[in-house]
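Notes to self, Thiamin phosphate synthase:
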Amino acid sequence: MWYQRTITLSEKPRGFHLITDEIIDKLSGLPPVETGLLHLLLLHTSASLTLNENCDPTVRADMERHFLKTVPDNAAYEHDYEGADDMPSHIKSSVLAFRCCCLYARGVYS
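result:
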């Protein structure tokens, strides 16, 4: 059995954000499922998804610093007419991911 829902998350500034609660909230109202898979697919070409621990917020800060150094704004990108952060966003979405799959069992996503 398949269920599909298109969800829209709130706009966020550049950075690494916790979105788990927002996604789960948007999925409320789906028929109950004992076991399944949650497939997330971003339809935006300059956004990305990554799974990381949530025990220590410095992980997100370190990830942000790494990507700001590795893929800087205002570098000599040819694709620059949408703003200084647009091409770096495309690179990050290629390096990270635009989709992910999570397991669901007995009411818990993992």
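- The chain has three helices and three strands.
- The first strand starts at residue 35 and ends at 41.
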